[in-house]
Structures are given as C-alpha cells and as structure tokens.
Amino acid sequence: MRTILVHLPAYREPELIPTIQSALSNAAHPERIHFGICRQFCEEDRFDNIDEYRSDPRFKIHDMPYTEAKGLATARAIINDELLTDEDFVCQLDSHHRFTKDWDNTLIGWYDNLKDEGYNPIIGGYLPYYNPFNDPEDRVQEPWFSEAACFYPHNTIFIRPTAVREWKTLTKPYPARFLSGHFAFSSNQWARDVKHDRDIFFAGEELNLSVRSFTHGYDLFHPHEVVIWHATMREERAGKLVWDDQSKRGEDMWWKGNDSARARIRQLIGVEDNGIDLGEYGLGDKRSLRDYEKYAGIHFKKKSFQKYTKDNYFPPNPYPYKNEKEWEDSFMFSFYHLVNLERHEMPKDDYESILVAFDDENGEGIFSTSIEGERLNQFMKNSKPIHYEEMFLTDKKPARVVYWGASKKRGWTERVERQIP
Which pTM value belongs to this model? Predict the structure, then answer.
C-alpha cells in the first residue's frame, strides 16, 4: 500500500494533536499515514505534547526548543531532508488542519488521474477555513483559487485566496499559477527535487516554491473540491508566534530574515543580480523562467500582469502573439499603494464618503475608489486611522493620491494630496 508523509512544521501549536487525530480518524487507510513533525516547543505550553505517539513507527519527530527556531522554511527543510524516507507521497501542510472523510484516497486518486493524463502533478493551494472554536459549524465548504493580487514594492507577489470560477461545474483538479505553503500534495520525488531554501525565513515561500517547482517540470493544480481545511485566524496563538517570541527576546530575525529572503527571490526571478549563488535552491532545468511567465501571465521585471491573469482565468494564459514584443506589450503595471489617512487630516464628523483618487503627472485620473461603511464609521467615531492596501492594474504610473471628503451638507470638503515617489 502506498504511503503518505504528512508534513507538519509545528511552532508552539495548540492544534497539533487535533490535526493528527483528524488526519488519522478520517483516513480510509490510517496505516499508510505517516507523520514528519518538526515540533518547535516551549515546555510550559504542554498542549503540543505528543509523547503518546513516539512509540508509533508511523511518527518521525524532530524536537526543537522554540528559542532555536530559524523560520518556517528551516522547519520544512528538516522534515523533507531528515524525516522523509521511503513514503510514496508528501502532503505538505502547516499544523492546524481538519480532513474530509477518505482524504487519502481522494488525493491519491486525483494524483493518479493527472499522471494518466500525462502530467507531473502537484495538487495544492490555499485551503478553505475552519474555526477551531466552532468546528465543524464554521467550515467553509467551497474550494479556493490562489490569485495574484499585486506586486509588492520589494518585487514579490501578494498571493491571496479568492473564489473559484464556476467551481460547481468542475469535475477534477484544475490548473494553478501558484502553490500554497500550507497545502501541497505530490510525490516523494518533488520533495527531493525542490528543496526548501532555509534562507527564506517566511515571506516569499510560496512564490519561490511555485516558480522552482514549475521550472523543475512539475505541473501545478488546485483541488476542485474541499479535501482539507486550514485555520487562518489564530487567536489561541496570539503572542506565541515565532516573530512574537523573537521580538520579546530582542531579536530581529523577522525583518532581517524577510529582507534577505526577498533578495534571494529577486535573484531567483531575474529582476536583480545580488551576487547570490542559489545553488540547489535555484531554478530547475526542465522549463525556463520565461516559460513560467508565459504560462502564468506574469512579467517579473516589469512588475506586471496580463488582464487574463488578474481576471482569475485558469492558466495557461492564451498566447496569440506574433512575436515577443507583442507579448511584452500585453502587460499592465501592477500598482500597489499603502493608503494611510490620519483623523486630524479629516477632522469632521459628517463625511458620507472619502474619495481616494490616483492621478498621473498631468493630473489626469487613473483610478479611484471610496472609503465608506464600517471603515469610515470607525474613522469618525473612534478616530481609528484608515490604513489598508490599494492595488490595481494601470498602463500609466500614478504620480499622486488625493483624499477628498464628501458631506451631504458641505459637499466636497477637506482635501489631502500626496505625491507618490
């Protein structure tokens, strides 16, 4: 019987034992479910004590005091490099999950069908949400799609979950642009070929894995129906996450580690030469980076997307272009701006809305939206600053942002204008 290594990097994790229990109780064949656990523990917690499983040969456990934790990619690397042995499959997860009935048969069946179609598949993506405090009632029953929201200023992509187009009509896993760190199911060989880069602390892990897996010859797919759930909001771990603990100790690995990781990713995707030898953590030789860009409708150097990509159609993107120049011209700039408005800048209490408008250098409008509803109410009643990420596609780069209050009684009122560097 083919076996699965359930890959769990657990940092001070209250959901570790419930995750193990759910995986085993819902498996069609619990005997084939093996566990690779990097347990980053604090003795005082006790909620992640897994001594009851240590004599079970299906469990391979690497214990690490939480003060020695070096980030998510290191924990993942320990599992794949040191705990994975002869299991046929890897099911890469976080460590806070719930499983559907016969999930193991489901995933292996999907994988086999895709192999029969000629693919070298990885089935992964963002998993729908469950709430540990109201389970199973709060489980989301629809699968999710991983979309490219925007390019961040540091050149990595903001990947986020969204609804799947006409998901009820889908009958099998469908093509994806991105992997998710918290769910990827594939062969043992994938874990051998695409090793986790221990110098990626946290940010950028998913883009790194997606590009490298694709260029190593793997085909990316999202599940078309729910097979596993993931807990996104982690109230029970407030103040106990790795960056919280490091901050309490006066360490700065979160910022420094992520800055270093982003430099490595910019090297990987060819937008900078930072003099970094990525070695075994570089691109594969089965497909090129340009192959990935054409497949996904992404242009890394231009920080741009094709509209087909932003409209969340499934890849591969159509290629009706006569030459490379036509393809290059098919992209729109992915603009990202951190909206930040303080109460003293809009001091009145009668705003119906606040316009947010982006103009080019000649004052011509490019994009606009409005702040209203609960965000505006909190701003006026509780003086809560307006602080959120705005993103859109444009063929012109904005030069300024304008915030302009609107009132029933006063019409257009206070106006704030800022230049965009």
Answer: 0.89
